[in-house]
Structures are given as C-alpha cells and as structure tokens.
Sequence to fold (260 residues):
Amino acid sequence: MNTHIKIILFTLLVLGTGITACKPKKSAEETEKRILVFAAASLTDVLSELIDSFGVSTGYTVQTNMASSGTLARQIEQGGTPDIYISASKRWVDYVDSLGFIVAPYKTNIAFNELVFIAPKESILTDVTIDKTLDLNKLIGSGRLAMGDPGHVPAGKYGRQALGYYGWDTQINEKVLPAKDVRSALMVVELGEAPLGIVYKTDALKSDKVKIIGSFPEESHKPIVYVAGICNESDASKAFYSYLTSKETAAIWAKYGFKK
Fold:
C-alpha cells in the first residue's frame, strides 16, 4: 500500500471517528421525560391534543403506539413495554393486569363513548330508530356491515352485543365485514365499500365522509369505557396518568365526543 493511499484511509478513519463522537447522546433527564403510551386506535385524535397540551405545560415527550386494545394487550404479553396502557375495553386491561403488568393502584376509568350506525355521506339511508322493529337485513341490502372484528376489537365486541340484543346477529352474520380496528371499519364506509357500519360516535364525528343514522341505546351493550393503567411506574408516567384523569382535561375529551 503506497503512502498516498495510507494518508487517505487515515483521514477517512479520523473523520468517521469525529462524526461518531459528535452525535448527541440523550441525557438521562431527556430519557426520563419520555413516556411511551399504548392506546386504543379510537383515541388517536383526542390523545394527540391531550399530549400536546400536557407537553406544553410539563415539558414531557409522549410517544404513542395506536392499535386495537386486544392487539396492544398481546404486544404487552409478548414483551412490549409501555409506560401506560389505555384500553377501550375493561376486559383487556384486566387481562394485562392479571399478567402482572399493571402497577397497583394505577388503573382507572378515564372516559366513555357511544356506539352508532353510520352510512356514507351521500347514502340514501336516513335516520333510523334502533329497536327490535328495525329490519337490519333490509337496511344492509346486498352489501356488508362494517365493524371491528369482535374477536379482538372492543368496538366489534360492543357491536356484536348490540346485534345480539336485538336478535340481529344470526340474521346478518354472513354480511358482517370484520375490520382490524374501528378506524378501519370507518374507512370501509367512507370509501363506500359498505353501505352501513358500526363504530364509535367519536370516530363518526371526525369524518366528513360519513353520517350518523342512529345511536344504540345504552342498554343494548356493556358500557364503552376507556381504562388507563400504568405499566412502568415513574414520575413521568404518573404525571401523564394524573393529567388524563384530571378535571382540567374534560373540555378536550368533550370536544371529541367523549364523556368523562
């Protein structure tokens, strides 16, 4: 190897070392101020505003992993390590708790939602009264009913309960189009790929491509409650948990159609 090549290689080595040395390392304080939240997909919009508001007042950084509550529970079971888990189903958060991943006593209800029928904005379907006299099979026609997969999506489970309450589950079972989460069910109706869907009221309100044509009575399904639990106890996680449950967030929840 000649001298010229040696000089070039040495220069590249020095530059590479310098670049590596100049990469900023996160301080322990920065790491402590980061919070990872696993949350139900239906909370995407309201949680985004809550995080912004929380960050401005505290300086904490909150990162999210949004999916169906069941999917998130399985991720935690298989090694996922959130600081806080927010489920749209008490059943799933209780399951995570039973595995020892929720830190006592940090588990509480933080908000409530409603279940509604939606149709594409331009649909000829109009407002309906949801009771036993409604002919749901006729309402769907030759199309499909979009809803979260009852196997792991809370919105789908509530939907299945409501269908069963009115005796519709067996009538329209083959017409159900299961989606991976409630947002996906909403999108199917937005795209006109299904004439009817069952989603949370909060998701329907955020879309200008669908319309609500009926609201399910509370007695037709179990209460749609969002439950938060701390999985990793720290000053940061406790601060965000307290913020979520505080009265000062009530206006933000209400803005997106949730009830406290």
Q: What stands out?
A: The first helix runs from residue 3 to 22. Confidence is low (pLDDT under 50) at residues 5-28. Residues 146 and 177 are 5 Å apart (CA to CA). Strands lie at 34-40, 61-67, 84-87, 107-113, 115-120, 145-148, 176-179, 196-200, 210-215, 224-230.
